[in-house]
Amino acid sequence: MKKKQKKIASGAALESEIHSHAEFFDHLVQLIPSRFYLQNDDADSKPWFQGLSKAAKASLKLQSKRNIKLSRRQRFDPDHETTKTPLADEENLAGNRVDDSAKDESKEKSVTYEELRQRLRRKIEMLRGNRGEGRVEGKKRRRSDENDGGESRNDEHEEEDEEEEEIIEYGKVRVGDDDEDDKSGKKKKRKLSKVHELERAKKLQEVKKEKPSVAERESWKAATSRAMGYKVHDDVRLIKESMKRDKKKKVKNAEKWKDRVQTQEKMKGDRQKKRKDNIVGRINDKKMRKIAKREKKLMRPGFEGRKEGFITPA
């Protein structure tokens, strides 16, 4: 009996001890904020602003700010404190609902996927059919154009294409009536030489000194030409420097050409000399072969050397 009473007493003490430990751990868990161990759905519930107007975006932002302030107040409110145990109970209660809703959503998703596939197939078939019809209609139109003045239609298409094509010249801007001059088909002026440009620049300088109105007009003309991207040669000093550079370049090129001609002549002479030496060498080799062949015929079997006179003196 005493042993049984001791066992019962020890079991009751163990149960009370376990209960106290559980309360202690629950209290520790309650000290931890719930956002560290529970899933937060705020990230998923954030509004997506794409496609909304400015007023709708502003209202959603204002509502989100209010919700954030309210959640902060509830977090620090002791009356609205949510512990781990009631949250766990709520999660357990909502588990079955989530499973049922997930099944329904999976069914709806499967249905929507099948519908989307069917729509895609229909659209592909429709596009294929339209593509074939478009080809047939295009052929019919071409035939009708060929029968009913196809040449005029082609001319119209060519004119439209020419109008659509835009030629862009970087660094050049059309100013004034240049478009009309280009369309009229006037020939471009031939480029003047440096000597003529120098004479023209000198005359312009003299005229500018005498007549300021002409000077102003020429300055405006030069400015518009530079704005259009053309080079204006109206400075005497620069033209002279350019002529000097051209002269030096010409002299340098002449020297290079002279050296090149000399090297070519030297190479040509070396090749001719080599060819002549080869020809002379082949002729000498041929002569030596003939001499060797003749000497071989004059040799007698059993004797060395050539026969020179009689063996026995007379």
TrEMBL record:
Residues 66-228, 241-285 are annotated as: Disordered. The keyword Nucleus applies. Residues 119-290 form the Ribosomal RNA-processing protein 14/surfeit locus protein 6 C-terminal domain. Its main location: nucleus. One of its GO terms (cellular component) is nucleus. Transmembrane segments: none annotated. Residues 74-83, 97-156, 194-220, 252-270 have a biased composition (Basic and acidic residues). InterPro entries: Rrp14/SURF6_C, Rrp14_N, SURF6. Belongs to the SURF6 family. This is Ribosomal RNA-processing protein 14/surfeit locus protein 6 C-terminal domain-containing protein. It comes from Penstemon smallii.
